[in-house]
């Protein structure tokens, strides 16, 4: 395998198990790394006196690359994972040889969305996460045909959400609400980029994906009949989009290396 490794960063309020259906098909072609982000899944929430910030989560990703002795990777992320990938690009652009932005957007939270995240954090601190967090999120995470026709997938997503540590959910909600606009970052970075979006995604709709793809000069893949969690709803479509795009990424990054 001569291509850069692919690091996949998961969505909120999930963990790296959301990549289970795409990990093996991708790993037969690429080195694939799927970490849990701080405070979620099996990753601890470090003690810190600072306000929650995606920049700290981005430092975690860079530290992981250091531990694995990886100079450059392709960073992929779904939803929050996309926000984190852009935070890493801002923090350490020399480590990012390509981006795979899945069901995410480059714009910051609106005031209403930021307030909603604050409300989530406060409710988690008061009540924990069961059963309300999954109930509130499932209608937006999965397309309606998925919710009605694939009950096993609904229960998988519910189980992942309900297994998260409440402190990690609260920290992450607060970190997400202060993220900056990244459209300018994508325009200036010149990094090979793939944008994937579910046609029925209500959280980061096709229009937002198109805006991001235009800013980044990216390849855009729209997957029909699925919502916000395309790696779970249409894993074959996500795998095909990534693998058909990846060789071009390697060629461009290879050219850049030789130009230096």
Brief rundown of the structure:
It contains twelve helices and six strands.
| Helix and strand element order | EHEHEHEHHHHHHEHEHH
Mean pLDDT: 93
Helicity, as a percent range:
40-55%
Which class best fits the helix and strand makeup? alpha/beta
Distance between the termini: 23 Å
Give the count of helical stretches: 12
Count of β-strands: 6
Radius of gyration: 17 Å
Which percent band covers the strand fraction? Answer: 5-15%
Widest sheet: strand ordering: 2-1-3-4-5-6
Low-pLDDT residue spans:
253-260
Overall spatial form: globular
Biggest sheet record: 6 strands, parallel
Structure report:
With 260 residues, the protein is α/β, with parallel strands linked by helices. Helices cover 53% and strands 12% of the residues. The protein is built from 12 helices and 6 strands. The chain has helices spanning 20-27, 54-67, 80-91, 111-127, 132-141, 144-149, 151-162, 166-176, 183-189, 206-216, 230-233, 235-259; strands spanning 6-9, 32-33, 73-78, 96-102, 193-198, 219-223. A 6-stranded parallel beta sheet has the order 2-1-3-4-5-6, with helices on both faces. Strand 5 (193-198), helix 10 and strand 6 (219-223) form a beta-alpha-beta unit. The longest helix has 25 residues, at 235-259. It is globular, with a radius of gyration of 17 Å. The model is unreliable at 253-260 (pLDDT under 50).
């Amino acid at each position: 395998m001569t291509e850069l490794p692919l690091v996949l960063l998961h969505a909120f309020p999930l963990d790296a198990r959301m990549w289970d259906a795409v990990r093996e098909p991708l790993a037969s072609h690429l080195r694939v790394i799927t970490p849990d982000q701080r405070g979620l899944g099996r990753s601890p929430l470090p003690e810190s006196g600072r306000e929650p910030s995606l920049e700290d989560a981005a430092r975690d990703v860079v530290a992981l690359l250091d531990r694995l002795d990886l100079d450059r990777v392709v960073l992929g992320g779904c939803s929050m994972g996309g926000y984190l990938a852009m935070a890493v690009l801002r923090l350490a652009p020399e480590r990012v040889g390509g981006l795979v932005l899945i069901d995410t957007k480059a714009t910051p939270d609106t005031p209403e969305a930021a307030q909603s995240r604050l409300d989530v954090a406060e409710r988690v601190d008061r009540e924990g996460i069961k059963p309300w967090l999954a109930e509130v999120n499932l209608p937006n995470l999965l397309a309606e045909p998925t919710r009605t026709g694939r009950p096993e997938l609904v229960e998988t997503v519910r189980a992942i959400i309900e297994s998260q540590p409440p402190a990690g959910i609260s920290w992450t909600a607060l970190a997400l609400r202060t993220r900056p606009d990244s459209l300018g970052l994508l325009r200036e970075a010149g990094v090979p980029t793939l944008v994937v979006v579910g046609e029925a995604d209500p959280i980061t709709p096709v229009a937002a994906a198109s805006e991001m793809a235009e800013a980044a000069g990216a390849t855009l893949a729209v997957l029909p009949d699925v919502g916000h969690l395309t790696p779970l709803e249409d894993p074959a479509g996500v795998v095909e989009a990534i693998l058909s795009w990846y060789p071009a990424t390697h060629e461009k990054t290879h050219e850049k290396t030789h130009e230096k």
